[in-house]
Amino acid sequence: MxxxxxxxxxSMGIEDLPRVIEIERALKHAPHWTQAAWxxxxxxNAAVRRIALVAEEPNAGEALGFAVAALAKPEAELESIAxxxxxxxxxxxxxxxxxLAEELLHAGVGEVFLxxxxxxxxxxxxxxxxxxxxxxxxxxxxxxxxxxxVLMGLRLR
Length: 157
Ligand SMILES: CC(C)(COP(=O)(O)OP(=O)(O)OC[C@H]1O[C@@H](n2cnc3c(N)ncnc32)[C@H](O)[C@@H]1OP(=O)(O)O)[C@@H](O)C(=O)NCCC(=O)NCCS
What we know:
29% of the residues lie in helices and 36% in strands. It has a domain at 3-111: 3-Layer(aba) Sandwich (Aminopeptidase), CATH 3.40.630. It has helices at residues 3-6, 17-26, 35-41, 92-106, 121-129, and strands at 8-11, 50-56, 63-72, 75-83, 111-117, 133-142, 147-155.
């Protein structure tokens, strides 16, 4: 199967959370959120408005990856993105970001920001390939282990 080309990108719902959390927990570099934090992501009445997407296999319907952005118009923060290890490097991450960018543009967002651990070479390579640029660093931003954050941004229009 052409994993990325065939995958369906759609909005995340509460029924996706067990699989989303499974993907997240299996990846050392993905942010690990609590069940309550994930429930807020898919809650339409939550204080923070978010766009959350999943990429799923067209037949089995199993989610293979996800992306979550929080809106603070005219900006948004890409809070989390992950693709299950066996499905990585097939273009799914790229498709998730493209779909997210489209939805963010529709929502009136012109710029996306994110923070990433300075040691996360895969994510840094991924974001650079998608055209994000480094705009700064936050010293010792992360704990456990303590580490700098690289701030990156992408203009959508
Ligand atoms: C970062 C991540 C989401 C990328 O997803 P993906 O589906 O594997 O990415 P894609 O296949 O769409 O890659 C698009 C391009 O990004 C770059 N890229 C992706 N993974 C890379 C890696 N490990 N090293 C260097 N460049 C990479 C490549 O240029 C790639 O194009 P190519 O495969 O044609 O060379 C995935 O590696 C992941 O889930 N990592 C763990 C969680 C994480 O670190 N999330 C980010 C922090 S929140």
